[in-house]
Amino acid sequence: PAGTFSRPARQITQKGESTMTFYLKEEFLSFDHFDIWDEQDQLVYSADREFFTFGKKLNVEDASGRQIAAIQHVPFSIPCTYVLTIEGQDYDLTRNFAFFSRSYSLDALGWEIEGDFMSLEYAIMKNGATVASIQREFLTLGSRYALEVADPQDALLALCVVLAIDCCDEEHSG
Fold first, then answer.
1. Is-contact 105 96, C-beta < 8 A?
2. Could you tell me which residues come within 8 angstroms of residue 15 by beta carbon, excluding any fewer than 6 positions away?
3. Which of 51, 60, 95, 151 makes an SS bond possible with 69, Cβ 3.0 to 4.6 Å?
4. Considering the entire predicted model, what is its pTM?
5. How far apart are CA 128 and CA 138, in angstroms?
């Protein structure tokens, strides 16, 4: 849960503005099972890898077990592309070529995702404004992220972006 994350998510808005913060934790040796908590340590989502599919696929479920989103790798895509499906709408997340950073784009919404060299911090930007901030915990067994989203309406899509980036980074590091 949130208490296991050693540093808080970076503040992206002024005090008093409503944001949403999520904490994602991949269980060690779980083959891509993530539990996702909110700021009150309530389990709100989970994500699991679907096996026996062509291309890596994660399904996101709400706390009641209802599937609400999917993240699907497009096999043999150059550059690396993931399709994020939410409420029947598909969004293509594409990894961009960059030398000393990690860069992705979600062209349908005009989102640009920029990460540092070590893939520890990312910012999701749109027209110069921060949509979300992503921080990855360093040196843990299994991946851990803190995600702060400026507009709660963007929360589920930003969450899917984090999961897709984790899959893409995993694919390119191994």
1. yes
2. none
3. 60
4. 0.85
5. 27
